[in-house]
Write a structure and sequence with these properties.
mainly alpha, single chain, 184 residues
Length: 184
């Protein structure tokens, strides 16, 4: 397969992800995994967890950041650009159409009922992604404590997500240092 064809396939995969996933970045995670691991073999489950961690640690939407990180790793600059454009272009197109026809759509009871069902399904998709990622990422007591601590701090609404990420990174570093000094 030529590089141009591979880039097109990468763009098309993230376009499909953006087109058929409702509910934002976290709801896209199961579809991202299906496309990039199961369908194309561009990465494996361990690496996608690292990419998710990096994507969540920087500003922006996790799906867009994932597309950029993976695209850059696989195809360099143009992979990052095409991954990003692919994942956000469907939203731009759909939002533009909705904006044009907003008044007619919001009054339609069928559309309102469909979106009520979609909103409920998105909760399930996000929960499934969290369970799937958690099973692979949370290994051992320390990781479980970090996950539960982050969950509780986040649910409290008093601690900024950025601070939670920084604190978890610092705790991981300190735990690594302590383990390193114990093994010497």
């Amino acid at each position: 397969m030529t590089r141009r064809k591979e880039l097109w396939e990468f763009f098309a995969s993230f376009f499909r992800i953006g087109l058929f996933t409702f509910g934002g970045g976290l709801a896209m995670l199961p579809m991202i995994e299906r496309e990039v691991i199961d369908r194309h073999g561009w990465t494996d489950r361990d690496e996608i967890l690292d990419i998710y961690a990096m994507a969540q640690s920087v500003p922006g939407v996790i799906a867009a950041n994932t597309a950029v990180f993976l695209g850059n790793r696989l195809f360099g600059f143009w992979g990052a650009v095409l991954g990003l454009v692919g994942v956000v272009l469907p939203s731009i197109l759909i939002i533009t159409v909705i904006a044009i026809f907003f008044e007619q759509l919001k009054a339609n009871p069928l559309i309102a009922a469909a979106f009520e069902g979609i909103r409920a399904a998105v909760v399930g998709l996000i929960a499934a992604a969290a369970v799937r990622v958690g099973r692979r990422a949370v290994k051992g007591g320390f990781a479980l404590a970090m996950a539960l601590g982050a969950l509780l701090l986040s649910l409290s609404g008093y601690v900024n997500v950025i601070l939670i990420i920084i604190l978890a990174g610092l705790a991981g570093y300190l735990q690594y240092r302590v383990k390193g000094s114990e093994s010497q």
